[in-house]
Amino acid sequence: MKWFLLFVAALGLGLATADSSADSIETTYNYYRLPTSLRPQKYHLRILTLLENPEDLRFSGSVKILIEALENTKNVTLHSKNLTIDESQITLRQIGGEGKKENCVSSTAVNPSHDFYILNTCQELLAGNTYELYMPFAADLNRQLEGYYRSSYKDPVANLTKWISVTQFEPASARLAFPCFDEPDFKAPFVVTLGYHKKYTAISNMPEKETKPHETLADYIWCEFQESVPMSTYLVAYSVNDFSHKPSTLPNSALFRTWARPNAIDQCDYAAQFGPKVLQYYEQFFGIKFPLPKIDQIAVPDFSAGAMENWGLVTYREIALLYSAAHSSLADKQRVASVVAHELAHQWFGNLVTMKWWTDLWLNEGFATYVASLGVENINPEWRSMEQESLSNLLTIFRRDALESSHPISRPIQMVSEISESFDQISYQKGSTVLRMMHLFLGEESFRSGLQAYLQKFSYKNAEQDNLWESLTQAAHKYRSLPKSYDIKSIMDSWTLQTGYPVINVTRDYAARTAKLNQERYLLNTQVARAYRGGCWWVPLSYTTQAVQDFNNTAPKAWMECGKNGESLPKTIQDLPGPDQWVIFNTQLSTLYKVNYDAQNWKLLIETLTNGDFERIHVINRAQLIDDALYLAWTGEQDYEIAMRLIEYLQREREYLPWKSAFENLKRVGRIVRQTPDFEFFKRYMKKLILPIYEHLNGINDTFSAIPQQDQVLLKTMVVNWACQYQVGDCVPQALAYYRNWRAEANPDEKNPVPINVRSTVYCTSIKHGSDSDWEFLWTRYKKSNVAAEKRTILTALGCSREVWLLQRYLELTFDPKEAIRKQDSMWAFQAVAFNEVGFLLAKKYFMDNVDFIYKFYHPLTKDMSRLLSPLSEQVITLSDFNEFKDFVNNSRQSLKGLEQAIQQTLEIMLTNVQWKERNYHQMSRSIQQLL
């Protein structure tokens, strides 16, 4: 599944009690996992969906499960949640094995805390026998974006709301749609049959097998799909809709179709063309053909995640699949490519081989994230997206994993409600980052052959991370890419089983030409005593020197090792250059660690960056030096003077990645300093820094079609955004002129003169400096837009106003179900208001005053609610505000259920801001004034 990260949302599960006609008796079995005495062999699933009456959208059906008994047992325990089950119709019979006996269900019980539905049997079920369980069920198509739910869109021609139905089962919501063994390890084939009105289309994981009229309902049909391969319940998918599709099958390949609502089908071209190409790349990369006869991808108007990798029927949020050349920016196009590549990578990593339990969710998500970047790079090398994605992941994790409240990549899970918290940056981006590290230290041959062996060995089965480490260790020893005494498990466990990452302190002895290295965990909270910063990571050490400048070799020249008891062993590196030459560790940031050098080495680096041939330092390492210097200054391990002198060189920098690294760091400082009297110096400094690159890129003018490198398009988009924020050059007046021209168009929904890549900046700037009617004009465009990416851009820009009453009204519109903002998009509007300096206090107050209402609004997908917290955490900078928020959290526990991890991280970030302001504010301000 892909959650929008920078653009991410995720899945939270509330525990509702099972609504069934069974007696709610707590049984003695109260373990969170299903008993292992039974295994499903096959499911026959029949579902009738009623979409005609908008007042009564529901489904009913039956499931026939063939079950093998592995041990004797007196009950069948499976999952069911919020389903109405008519017990008088449940049947159980023995169909295979010794001496067939009559059997039946004597009574049932429910365990609501684990969603168990327990059927006590008349006769004991005996090991070795097979049984057939038949259960009928019914429920409403819910509005909660999980299980089997409803979604809708407006048909502009008929001016009608059209309803469709679709599933979202990951991680544990198949139980909301039919009774089943709802754990990843219970794989079985599925035969799905859907009943629906013949004016609709139905799709599922497999191709259609046959269609016949419904026995009693006029104009209704039954469509049976081919039997699926064995798969986990969370990958089952089906939808009844009136969508159109675009076929785009490649020769000798699976049938490939892309679906969307009829009035958006023209936005499917890009995904339809990109999808089959990346599927073919994976067949080659994994050495295994895509195992199903067809694959569909569908854009769903209401969708809680970014996308979901159901086998053979991938579901997407519209913004993640649809692309309009007339309305979507290059960044939007890259996002579509990246999400499609991520979901199709899952068809092997996740679907063909599935984790045994959610502890190893990262095996699915980290892999799909990493392999997707290989896929996109292969198909669009001109984007240089591999470098962008790698750096972006590293920047995210350097921040998130420096919190004490972070967690390991592989984490124990004992409640369904905890699973959803694992769909986070640690599983996705840190998972991807450590796999990239392993790919780089193993080399292509070992990495690929280890992966292929793993996938072949566990095809249609379940695996744990140790199984992967075994396959990779064998390959590494075979191809001699690791010393025989090393194994992947020891190395990688240090990255997946412990929280955090190291900072490596490099102290050079210039006379002896050596360097002494030691490591400790890097933490943002400076009040944590050194004793608690233990931990040891196996670190592959790559480095280069000023004389050699070989940044292409990312293979380790040495390793930092851990002792028998996990203690970190110091390392000495020999044969380094003399005192007139720098050393840079971690070539191309191939490993997740920060580096702190001694003062002389920093001095040499600053000299090369500001006066020397700085472009010979690899672009990723330039981004690394900026990030490391600013982080180490933030936590006081380094002087702000060094950090600020280092980023002075940016006036010469013309590449995207170093600027991205600098802006990410300066944004955080800016959010604190803008609430203080010294902001004037910071503003002047930012102007001085940005002006040369702004002018080099010809300002906000539309020169995009003349820019050959795609990452320069992203650079210009980003620089223009910052230039308008800090009123650099002609940015603001030009933005306002573009907006005025747009407002003057006779038909603004058809014709928009604002250059696509700077629309977000032009809209935001114009709303910030504009009138009430400027705001109304944009809100009208939002309601009329048919393109998800454009709607997202407008939603964010509307939060840029400085009018308190407008912002207050906008907050209320955001959470009003009768308004035009879909629930899945509400957090973008809230975040836009909250990140705005005028809106911050309003949003914080709105959140604290209405927390009960907001909780109910998102429930059960409380994970979306946690996205409202990041703008609050970034801007609280005083101890009194921190304490106020802490008290609020303590008094609102009920309305923050399921957000425990997000709340802890929010409080910790607030605390580190308070520490920064007390420790660094004056020093930083002084070093800036010296540079003006």
What does this structure look like?
Helices cover 39% and strands 19% of the residues. The protein is of the alpha+beta class. It folds into four domains: 18-241, Sandwich (Immunoglobulin-like), CATH 2.60.40.1730; 243-500, Neutral Protease Domain 2 (Neutral Protease, domain 2, Orthogonal Bundle), CATH 1.10.390; 502-647, Immunoglobulin-like, CATH 2.60.40; 730-801, no CATH class. The longest helix is centred in the last third of the chain and has 32 residues, at 900-931. The radius of gyration is 29 Å and the shape is globular. GO terms for molecular function: alanyl aminopeptidase activity; metalloaminopeptidase activity; zinc ion binding.
SSE inventory with pairings:
Layout (H helix, E strand, L loop, with lengths): L37 E13 L7 E12 L3 E7 L11 E6 L8 E7 L4 E10 L4 E11 L6 E9 L4 E9 L21 E8 L3 E4 L3 E6 L6 E6 L12 E4 L2 E4 L7 E6 L8 H18 L7 E7 L6 E2 L4 E5 H4 L8 H17 L6 E3 L5 H19 L5 H16 L15 H4 L5 H18 L1 H14 L3 E3 L1 H14 L9 H9 L5 E8 L4 E8 L17 E3 L1 E3 L12 E3 L10 E3 L9 E3 L8 E4 L1 H13 L7 H16 L5 H8 L8 H18 L5 H18 L13 H16 L5 H14 L14 H10 L3 H13 L3 H10 L6 H11 L11 H10 L3 H11 L1 H8 L3 H5 L3 H6 L3 H13 L8 H32 L1
Helix pairs in contact: 1-3, 1-4, 3-4, 4-5, 4-7, 5-7, 7-8, 8-9, 12-13, 12-14, 13-28, 14-16, 15-16, 16-18, 17-18, 18-20, 19-20, 20-22, 21-22, 21-23, 22-23, 27-28
